[in-house]
Amino acid sequence: MRLVVDLNRCQGYAQCAFLAPEVFFLSGEESLVYDPHADEEQRGKVARAVAACPVRAITVDGPGAADRSATTARGHGSPHAGR
What we know:
The chain has helices at 15-19, 43-52, 65-74; strands at 2-5, 24-27, 31-34, 58-61. By secondary structure, the chain is of the alpha+beta class.
């Protein structure tokens, strides 16, 4: 999976870093650092991070990325989504 964060849009709320710390973290007080090629096993956490971003600065490319992220963002789907 490939991640892109619009760093001009990102406001440093750090919801992504809280939900997927293996992929996103803050350097200093407000600078977001992330792994643009996150492992597939992080997909569930990344989908939750995408949905939690208040400014929608994170996008994900790869098989099933849009479907999983949209389902998580709406709060629908089975309790086993992302496994």
